[in-house]
Amino acid sequence: MNEIKEYVDGIYKALDDKKAEDIAIIDISGLSNIADYFVIATAGNPHQMDALQDAVDEYMVRAGKPAKNIEGRVRDKSNWILMDYGDIIVHIFDKEAREFYNLEHLWKGIES
Prior knowledge:
43% of the residues lie in helices and 26% in strands. By secondary structure, the chain is α+β, with helices and mostly antiparallel strands. The longest helix has 17 residues, at 46-62.
């Protein structure tokens, strides 16, 4: 297993441990040069969004791959947190934003 996939698996576990909903992993390596993977998850409430962000960031810092950038913190009333780890971009949404932006559908349309 390559190193990036190991990070993705660790992110998945961090999200799952905090009860994220509908965790999706999309391999975009052949579709885009912005990243190799999108990891997308839904939080049930703002407190869970914070917990999911903290869990992912804690895992990645421990793994030696801190975020290049984090946008959309819950404390700022955001409904979408984007965490950029270079080869991996993590999206944490509230339910309404996840349905509205529907990133899975967007990226599946590109790979067709």
